[in-house]
Amino acid sequence: ENAALLIAIIQNAIDGIITIDERGKIESINPSACLLFGYAPEEAIGKNVSILMPPPDKEQHDEYLSRYQQTGRAHIIGVGREVVGQKKDGTLFPFRLGISEVQYSGRKIYTGFIHDLTREKEAEDKLKEYA
Ligand code: HEM
Questions:
Q1: The domain at 2-126 falls in which architecture?
Q2: In the chain, where are the structural domains located?
Q3: Is the confidence at residue 123, as pLDDT, over 80?
Q4: Neighbouring residues of 67: CB distance < 8 A, sequence distance ≥ 6
Q5: pLDDT tens for residues 80-112?
Q6: Are 101 and 110 in contact (CB under 8 A)?
Q7: SS3 of 82, please?
Q8: Predicted TM-score (pTM) of this structure
């Protein structure tokens, strides 16, 4: 069936995929995102997505969500941005974040696509050393 195919695609995606509700609560997280951030699915689900980022975004992310919901002005949705994530062990790492807004069974959810940039950044830094 169609749903089984979609689940297989998400479960095997190389990029991390996370969905949150409109208040920022994590509703689903795929294996890639679990690996990247170091959380088991049951540790992450139900928590605020802000557990995955360092300050100052950590303290402000709820406001980012309400700002967007009140103004309708997207800063990352439809554009993407390079941001810094925080793993469970505290390690920071850069990634490309893509967000889309999804109407799902009568309510709004957000899906975040997480593309790790650790290796790209390391290569960039090496190049700079020789420049
Ligand atoms: C907005 C950072 C993860 C959903 C923002 C903004 C920042 C940010 C800085 C505000 C942009 C602005 O107002 O200029 C981060 C960081 C993350 C993260 C550092 C690292 C884990 C996520 C994830 C999702 C998400 C995984 C969705 C599953 C949103 C939404 C907005 C937002 C819906 C408001 C819409 C918009 O500004 O386009 N985030 N975010 N964020 N974030 Fe996150």
A1: 2-Layer Sandwich (3.30)
A2: 2-126
A3: yes
A4: 73
A5: 999 999 999 999 999 999 999 999 989 999 999
A6: yes
A7: strand
A8: 0.96
Give this complex's ipTM.
0.97
**DSSP secondary structure letter of residue 83:** E
DSSP 53: S
Going from the Cα of 24 to the center of ligand 1, the distance in angstroms, rounded, reads 9
DSSP result, 35-50: HHHT--HHHHTTSBGG
Closest ligand 1 atom number to CA of residue 37 = 21
What spacing in Å lies between the alpha carbon of 83 and ligand 1's midpoint?
A: 9
Residues in the chain: 131
Percent of the chain, pLDDT > 90?
97
Please give the distance, rounded to the nearest whole angstrom, from the Cα atom of residue 1 to the centre of ligand 1: 33
| Cα–chain center distance at 39 | 13
Q: Which atom of ligand 1 is nearest to the CA of 114?
A: 26
Q: How far apart are CA 66 and CA 62, in angstroms?
A: 6
Could you list the beta-strand ranges (E) of the chain: 16-21, 26-29, 81-86, 92-104, 107-116
